[in-house]
Design brief:
Number of strands: 5
Transmembrane segments: 28-50
Number of helices: 1
Keywords: Membrane, Transmembrane, Transmembrane helix
Strand content: 15-25%
Strand order of the largest sheet: 3-4-5
Helix content: 40-55%
Number of domains: 2
Order of helices and strands: HEEEEE
Amino acid sequence: MSPNKYLYICTQRVESIFSILDVYLLNIYIMIKTISFKLIVVIGLLFTAVPSEENPNTLTLTSGIPTNGFIQFAKDDHVYISEYET
């Protein structure tokens, strides 16, 4: 086998290994992006505040966790937190 042919075969093997690694790394990257997007959506849904059924002036998170008075009510595009307007 001539040195040029041997070098060509080695080069092809190295290129195929790198192309396989590229595909794996791309799949891992896409998987991480998908998981992080799903986590952002789930966290956003858990911590979205809606008016409470018992008292419309208080907000409750959609996950059912009460805000414990930190967010007392939202009115006229202002959120009042513990008697202070923000």
